[in-house]
From TrEMBL:
<dbReference type="Pfam" id="PF04091">
    <property type="entry name" value="Sec15_C"/>
</dbReference>
<dbReference type="InterPro" id="IPR007225">
    <property type="entry name" value="EXOC6/Sec15"/>
</dbReference>
<comment type="similarity">
    <text>Belongs to the SEC15 family.</text>
</comment>
<dbReference type="GO" id="GO:0000145">
    <property type="term" value="C:exocyst"/>
</dbReference>
<dbReference type="Pfam" id="PF20651">
    <property type="entry name" value="EXOC6_Sec15_N"/>
</dbReference>
<comment type="function">
    <text>Component of the exocyst complex involved in the docking of exocytic vesicles with fusion sites on the plasma membrane.</text>
</comment>
<feature type="domain" description="Exocyst complex subunit EXOC6/Sec15 C-terminal">
    <location>
        <begin position="421"/>
        <end position="770"/>
    </location>
</feature>
<keyword id="KW-0813">Transport</keyword>
<feature type="coiled-coil region">
    <location>
        <begin position="82"/>
        <end position="109"/>
    </location>
</feature>
<feature type="domain" description="Exocyst complex component EXOC6/Sec15 N-terminal">
    <location>
        <begin position="52"/>
        <end position="221"/>
    </location>
</feature>
<feature type="compositionally biased region" description="Acidic residues">
    <location>
        <begin position="273"/>
        <end position="283"/>
    </location>
</feature>
<dbReference type="InterPro" id="IPR046361">
    <property type="entry name" value="EXOC6/Sec15_C"/>
</dbReference>
<protein>
    <recommendedName>
        <fullName>Exocyst complex component</fullName>
    </recommendedName>
</protein>
<dbReference type="InterPro" id="IPR042045">
    <property type="entry name" value="EXOC6/Sec15_C_dom1"/>
</dbReference>
<dbReference type="InterPro" id="IPR042044">
    <property type="entry name" value="EXOC6PINT-1/Sec15/Tip20_C_dom2"/>
</dbReference>
<dbReference type="InterPro" id="IPR048359">
    <property type="entry name" value="EXOC6_Sec15_N"/>
</dbReference>
<dbReference type="GO" id="GO:0090522">
    <property type="term" value="P:vesicle tethering involved in exocytosis"/>
</dbReference>
Length: 811
């Protein structure tokens, strides 16, 4: 029962579901019926649904049939009316066709005209559009043409500006055209071309200023020289930096040139043509010779292109290379001043250009870069000058070099470069200059001394007298009172040497000019150099003359007189230096002149040379001595050689009248002593093995002649027998042998007041041995005579006693 109820309930649900599906099929669009049918196929009552579907279809067919049957008569009537209308419609169609044919025929020309009008309107639109497009393209083409013209005329910076306008303003408006794409593709190439061409111009500029640096530097140094000359004219006015002002004016000129974009200014790439006119009152500004527009253009171009740093690095690198080339001196620079001048001109030109670039560009070079270059240049320049100046042996060249270095330093100082090291280096060159001066004056003094006649200067008129006194400070009232002709006591080399010393002082003063030294420093420098001249150069020259082999006694005497007067003139040299330096001698640390010492030393050397020369002359006469030591004859006059020697000495000492008394006395005493010593050596020399009493008598006559000469007072100032004491040894020795006074000698020997105090027993024994040997050989048969035997015994006895004295003395 329950199962039956459940089946009945399921049957009812299925029927309701099928009904719903059928309604859905009826109301749903055909395209969406798929899901509905799927639900049927998914169910299990497919057969029953199909039955219900068939039933529903039959019901709808019956309803359709009913409706058709209800409207059939109306449908038939409508068909009948349609058939009637078809005939009328056919007539209307024929009329329309006929009308259309007529219309087509009649409107054929109008259609042709309309087609023509249509084509004209189309062309008009095309032309208008073309004009509009061309109006957009023409500025682009004009700008591009302008760009090419600017490139052709090398106006690269304006070309770059044109390129920017073209790229950012004009090309975007016509970017869809093919030619514009070609232009756009060419823009990077054009930029590179502008970049390369501007760099090429810069390279030409760098090469040009490298070649013309000396011209730029020469002009800058001329300006500095002109300014310095002007400063010398108006010393009372302080220097107000007018050079700086002129420098700023030059920069203003270049700034004006920079703004100019004329083809001429842009084609110039270096040095402008400026002819030198020596007669012109004004020298053109150093930077006026240079057109810097290539640098400015290239800098602006690289700045616009965003490569300013690359440009700065390249510029600085190239200029460093050029600096090293400029600072490399030529190997023969030291030979001429022009070599130094060209070297300095190039350095000045280089830094004038860099200084101008520093002040007219923003950051292309900076002060640190300039200072670095200057430090390098300063060290290399100073090293080169030290090396090459050391080769200079001409003081005039060294002085010209100093003036050139000062001008070089002053020129660079105008542009703000520190130059203290150059002035310090000039102080080193000053020492070298002093050495070259000393060498030059050594030659001058040598020529003066070689050409001097070593005779007192004769004057025959007042004019000649004043001329000599004007050259040399000499005052002598006695000489002034003497009538003409008369003679100065000194020879010509005195005023010549004195004037050359003054010339040397002037030469030293010239070097100290413009070195920014104080008067005290200048005075000290001059005095030290003058002392070197006196103590080394002049002293050596005098010593060389004095030591000359062929120098005569007359010349030596004149040298002593000359040096005496030069010594007295030293105070006038002191006054001369004081007058030109305005530094009083009493000032602290003032160097004193050593001239007095120099001339004293020279005079002492001359005196010694006189003594030596006299002795040599005496030796030459003594070489003529020809004694016959074995003669038995007694002579009655002095030997000829000794007579000649005494005559020579008399004439020589007569020349010594102008010498200081002490010098003449010393010379005379020295000559007598040397003569006495030489005669003693002649008597005792080993070659004279034997001598006779006759030879000793002749020798005694010669000694008496010498004593007579000493007594005659050849040189005033000696006391009574002072000069004779030179011969006392000889006199006592000869008296002992001639008088044969051995008993007295032997008895009084050793007593302070003995008669033969100056006779040495060794000397007496030597001479006695020579006489003993003579007695033995010449009196071989005389030994049988009693007197001769007694004499021989006496000689032997005396000899024995002398040996006893000698041995006791040694013990």
């Amino acid at each position: 029962m329950e199962r039956g109820k459940m089946a009945e309930a399921e049957s009812l649900e299925t029927a309701a579901e099928h009904e719903r599906i059928l309604r859905e099929i009826e109301s749903t669009d055909t395209a969406c019926i798929g899901p509905t049918l799927r639900s049927v196929y998914d169910g299990e009552e497919h057969g029953r649904f199909m039955e219900k579907l068939e039933t529903r279809i039959r019901n709808h067919d019956r309803e359709i049939e009913k409706m058709c049957n209800f409207h059939y008569q109306g449908f038939v009537d409508s068909i009948t009316e349609l058939l009637k209308v078809r005939g009328e419609a056919q007539k209307l169609k024929n009329q329309v066709t006929d009308t259309n044919r007529k219309l087509q025929h009649e409107g054929k020309e109008l259609v042709i005209a309309m087609e023509e009008l249509k084509q004209c309107r189309l062309q008009q639109r095309n032309i208008s559009a073309t004009v509009d497009k061309l109006m957009l393209c023409l500025p682009v083409l004009e700008m591009y043409s302008k760009l090419r013209d600017q490139m052709k005329t090398k106006r690269h910076y304006p070309a770059l500006k044109t390129l920017e306008h073209l790229e950012h303003t004009y090309l975007p408006q016509v970017s869809h055209y093919r030619f514009c794409k070609v232009m756009v593709d060419n823009i990077p190439k054009l930029r590179e071309e502008i970049k390369d061409v501007s760099m090429s111009d810069l390279k030409d500029f760098l090469e040009s200023i490298r070649k013309h640096s000396d011209k730029i530097g020469e002009t800058a140094m001329k300006q500095a020289q002109q300014q310095r000359n002007l400063d010398n004219i108006v010393l009372q006015q302080p220097r107000i930096g007018s050079k700086r002002k002129s420098k700023k004016d030059v920069y203003t000129i270049f700034d004006t040139e920079l703004e100019s974009t004329s083809p001429k200014s842009e084609q110039d790439s270096g040095i402008l043509d400026v002819e030198d006119e020596e007669d012109d009152e004004e020298v053109p500004g150093a930077q006026d010779l240079v057109d810097f527009s290539p640098v400015y253009r290239c800098l602006h171009i690289y700045s616009v292109l965003g490569a300013r740093e690359t440009f700065e690095n390249y510029y600085r690198k190239q200029r460093r290379k050029q600096a090293r080339l400029v600072l490399q001196p030529p190997s023969n620079m030291h030979e001429t001043l022009d070599g130094y001048r060209k070297y300095f001109n190039q350095i000045v030109g280089f830094f004038v250009v860099e200084d101008h670039i520093l002040h007219t560009t923003q950051g292309l070079v900076n002060r640190a870069y300039i200072d670095e270059l200057w430090e390098m240049a300063l060290s290399k320049t100073i090293a080169a000058l030290r090396t090459h100046s050391s080769y200079c042996s001409d003081p005039n060249l060294v002085l010209d070099l100093k003036n050139l270095i000062v001008l070089f330093a002053d020129t660079l100082q105008v542009y703000g470069f520190p130059v203290n090291q150059l002035f310090d280096m000039l102080l080193e060159i000053r020492d070298q200059y002093s050495e070259t001066l000393l060498k030059k004056w050594a030659g001058i003094f040598r020529n003066i001394l070689d050409s001097d006649n070593y005779s007192p200067i004769p004057v025959t008129s007042e004019e000649m007298y004043k001329k000599v006194v004007g050259q040399f400070p000499f005052q002598d009232t006695e000489l002034e009172k003497q009538p003409f002709p008369k003679k100065f006591p000194f020879s010509e080399f005195v005023p010549k040497v004195y004037n050359q010393i003054k010339e040397f002082i002037y030469a030293c003063l010239k070097f100290s000019e413009d070195l920014h030294l104080s008067s005290t420093e200048v005075d000290d420098m001059i005095r030290k150099s003058t002392n070197l001249l006196l103590t080394r150069t002049l002293s050596n020259s005098l010593q060389n003359v004095i030591k000359r082999k062929n120098i005569g006694l007359t010349e030596l005497v004149q040298i002593i007189i000359n040096t005496t007067h030069l010594e007295k003139s030293c105070k006038y040299l002191e006054e001369f230096i004081t007058n030109i330096t305005n530094v009083l001698p009493e000032t602290v640390h003032t160097t004193k002149l050593y001239g007095t010492t120099t001339f004293k030393d020279a005079r002492h050397a001359a005196e010694e040379e006189i003594y030596t020369n006299l002795n040599q002359k005496i030796d030459q006469f003594l070489q003529l001595a020809d004694y016959d030591w074995m003669t038995g004859d007694l002579g009655n006059k002095a030997s000829d050689y000794l007579v000649d020697l005494i005559a020579f000495l008399r004439s020589t000492f007569a020349v010594f009248t102008h010498l200081p008394g002490k010098v003449a006395q010393t010379a005379c005493m020295s000559a007598c002593k040397h003569l006495a010593t030489s005669l003693m050596q002649l008597l005792l020399e080993a070659e004279v093995r034997q001598l006779t009493l006759g030879a000793l008598q002749q020798f005694n006559l010669d000694v008496r002649e010498c004593e007579q000469f000493a007594r005659s007072g050849p040189v005033p100032g000696f006391q009574e027998d002072t000069l004779q004491l030179a011969f006392i040894d000889l006199r006592q020795l000869l008296d002992l042998f001639i008088q044969w006074d051995w008993s007295t000698y032997l008895a009084d020997y050793g007593q302070p007041n003995c008669k033969y105090l100056r006779v040495n027993p060794v000397t007496a024994l030597t001479l006695l041995e020579k006489m003993k040997d003579t007695s033995r050989k010449n009196n071989m048969f005389a030994q049988f005579r009693k007197n001769e035997r007694d004499k021989q015994k006496l000689i032997d006895t005396v000899a024995k006693q002398l040996r006893g004295l000698i041995s006791s003395h040694h013990s």
